Structures are given as structure tokens and as C-alpha cells.
Amino acid sequence: MRIAMVGTGYVGLVSGTCFSEFGWDVTCVDKDEAKIARLQAGEVPIYEPGLTSLVRNNGAGGRLSFTTELAEAVADADAVFIAVGTPSRRGDGHADLSYVFDAAREIAAALTGYTVVVTKSTVPVGSSREVERVIREARPDADFDVVSNPEFLREGSAIGDFMRPDRVVIGADGERAREQMRQLYRPLFLIETPMIFTSLETAELIKYAANSFLATKITFINEFADLCENVGANIQDVAKGIGLDGRIGGKFLHAGPGYGGSCFPKDTLAVVRSATDAGSPLTIVERVIQVNDERKDRMADKIVAACGGSVEGKTIAVLGVTFKPNTDDMRDAPSLAIIPRLQEQGATIRAFDPAGMAEANTLLPDVEWCKDAFTAMTGADALAILTEWNEFRALNLERVKKTLRAPVLVDLRNIYEPREMAARGFYYNSIGRPAVRPEGASVNPVRTASR
Fold first, then answer.
1. Is the Cα torsion angle 85, 76, 161, 411 positive or negative in sign?
2. Where would a tag sit more exposed on the chain, N or C end, judged by fewer CB atoms within 10 A?
3. Does residue 185 share a domain with residue 66?
């Protein structure tokens, strides 16, 4: 089977590469000539563990190629995937579908023979019907079906998610299209992957419902973390206690600075706008968006409080700026709200991230980017961990204490244990757990540190 993947962003590149790993012939298409040239040379423009080797291996095997020529790729394809961006539309929060419809028009002109045109991009309910209308209007003679096949890839573990998914959702009207998709995903039948066949509208809504529920779960545990801090409880124990209930489950119950990334922020906003237009407001999701936005500012306030109530003239070391580990994605990362707020209050920021600094440098001005974690800490008045990269999970704490001007650590990912940190002489603040200080200490050292 031959596949054309229109769009080489995160979803398109990962999906196209994994389909080629299944053994299909895949051509990935993008208008960005520089990006295509890099991919043709085996250079992957995004950070995703394992992706570079798959791109190179399948390219060498002749199963994966890259081009700017959409017509050539589509003409011979049995399936054409639309995997272009659907960012929030400026001004109203609706998903911007202009790239999707532009792609549909170009695809229409190149269709030859029966083809399934698959919307892989996250699109509001009704969008696949509109894609069908656009193609039909341009090519009344074309033999095609439109299918909705939403993606459920997590950045940092996307290859595993594609190759061993929880489920595959396929929205299609006719048996001919369903059978084509069964053949496309045939390798997953061998591991008994659940295949859910639905209408186009249902498939589109499954994606939005899934992301909205996960965003709600994150926000729920974050609000309970605040309550834990106020009453002296431990959010990690609360999360474990409720997560062992099979009806709830333990995933996405990790308290932190709020969700970010390429999906949850824009998808929750888009589904809220669509639901309002349909006369069925999603008030829970509306509140989730509001609470998550407010939380990021409160995390900056938490760092200020740990520094004695003021960061004026102080240096804060920040470890991790991407929205999650194992990605270089900075989209809606909590750091984009936290760091500027600290700077507005007079702090100097020295930061390190294993993969995100190149992109972050364009988004966070006046930050001193450092070559490693300990360089960032050198002479800093406090340390804040914003992203839980593995290399931050087992820092040499004695060295950390000696490197910092004062032993103040604000852990927004709950990597360390409060009692251990107090025993090691740290003033330690985390999320949803009581703040601790060294035994016998009473005054925050940042307040009185000699400048």
C-alpha cells in the first residue's frame, strides 16, 4: 500500500515514519523546502526519542521519502493523510482550518483512482464532511472517501504510542473505506489492537473528548494539591489513594505547574468554542482552561514566596523549560508564563534544558542559557525545577547545596522527598506537600543572604 502524508510536523512525521516501519511505501510532503532538504539528508527537525534512527533506516530501505511535490505523491497513493497544523485562530480560539482546506484542494487536483483521504489533524466536529465537500466541489469525477483517523500520540513516547496503541479510531461512512483502513492498520491486528469504527463526527469528537478529559484530570489533581498545602496533607498519597480505584486510574494524577504542549491548550479551547456554537456549552472544560491559565502565574508566586517574598535583584536557576520531558516543544509551556513573571519582579534567570533551549531562546528574552544544570546554579539564590527531565531526578545534592548561594529548592514536579531534602539542609518547596526547612532553621536564607 502506498501512502502520502501531507504535513511533516510532529504528527505527520511520526505517523508517516511509523507507517513505513510497518512496511508501507510512504511519501511525506511539505511546502517547507528547507525542512524537506533536512529530512532527505536524514536530519530530523524535532526531538523525539528513536525517531531519527527510524527515519534513516526506512529511508535507506526505500520505504520512506520526502518531497515538496504534493501532486506526485498523491497521484500514486492508496491513502492520503492530511496532517497539517490546526492552531487556535487568533481572536476567538476556534481551530484554524485554513491549512486543512488548502491541502484538501491540492489533493483534489491530484487524485487518480480510488483513494481514501484521511484527516489525521485534530479538527472540530463536521470538518471531515467539509473536506469531503471541498474535494467533491473541485473534482466531481474523483473516486474517493473521506475518513477521520485522530491521533493519540504523546510527545516523548510517540513511536511506542503509534506502534502499540491503546486503540485506533476510524470514522468512515462506507465499507470500502473501512476495509482500506483495516488493510492499512493490518500489522496492529497481530497484537490485537482494538479498532473502533464510527461515523466521521463521532471520531472527531472522541479526540476532543479524550484531551478534554485528560486536561480536566490534571487540573483536578492540581486544585487538590493546593488544598493539601493548606491543610497539611500530601497530594502524592491522595493521588495514589484515588488512582488505585479502577474507575479513576492513576495516570495524569501528577500535580504540577499546569498542562501545556501542542494539544491540550488549543484543543480544549477549540472544543469549548465549537460546543458553544452548537448550543451545548462545556462549562467544566471552560473552568479547566481558566484554572490552568491562572495556575502558571501562581507557580511564579510560589517561587517568589520561597525566596522570602521578593526576587528583586536575585538570581533564580531554572532547570527545564519545555512543557514536558523528552521533547523540545515549547508550545504553551508553563515556563513561558513563570519566567517572565519572575523577571517582571526583578529576578535574573539562568536556565538549562537538555533539548529546548534553541526554541526557548526565541521566546524568552533576557535569559542566560547555560551549558548544564550546575552552571545554571552557580551563584544562584534559589533553584526551581520546572520540567522533570531524567537527569534532574538524581542531582548530586551536596554539590547542589554548595553551588547555590542559598540552599533553596522549589520543585514544581515533586521529584524529591521533603524529609530527605530537609535532612540534607535544604529549604524545600514542592506541589501539594508541606514545605520543609532544615532542622532548627527559622529564617529563609534568601532573605538574609549577603549580596
1. negative
2. C
3. yes
Say which CATH number the domain at 428 has: 3.40.50.720
Same domain, 189 and 307: no
Average pLDDT over residues 73-100: 92
Number of domains in the chain: 2
Task: Encode pLDDT of 329-369 as tens digits.
Answer: 999 999 999 999 999 999 999 999 999 999 999 999 999 99
Confidence of residue 442 (pLDDT cuts 50, 70, 90): low
β-bridge partners, 195: 168
In percent, the amount of the chain with pLDDT more than 90 equals 94
Residue 225 CA from chain centroid, whole number: 22
CB of 291 within 8 A of CB of 222?
yes
Last residue of a domain, one of 198, 213, 245: 198
Does 279 map to a domain? no
Residue 383 bridge partners (DSSP): 317, 409
Question: What's residue 88's pLDDT?
Answer: 87
In 16-172, DSSP assigns E strands to 25-29, 64-67, 79-82, 115-119, 144-148, 168-171
Burial 121-146 (b: 16+ CB within 10 A, else e): bbbbbebbbbbbebbeeebeebebbb
Say if 430 falls within a structural domain: yes
Q: Assess if residue 121 is contained within a domain.
A: yes
| 432 neighbors 228 (Cβ within 8 angstroms) | yes
pLDDT digits (tens, 9 = 90+) for 24-41: 999 999 999 999 999 999
d(CA 312, CA 186): 60
In which domain, by residue range, is 58 found? 2-198
Specify the pLDDT at position 444.
65
DSSP character at residue 89: P
Last residue of a domain, one of 147, 167, 198: 198
Residue at 143 is within a domain: yes
Model confidence at 9: pLDDT above 90: yes
Report the pLDDT value the prediction gives residue 439, as an integer from 0 to 100.
Answer: 77
**Amino acid sitting at position 427:** Y
Instruction: Return the pLDDT at 93.
Output: 82
In angstroms, the CA 329 to CA 349 distance is 20
Active-site residues, by number, are 263
Query: Predicted confidence band at 451 (pLDDT cuts at 50, 70, 90)?
Result: very low
Evaluate the CA torsion angle 164, 170, 175, 177 in order and state its sign: negative
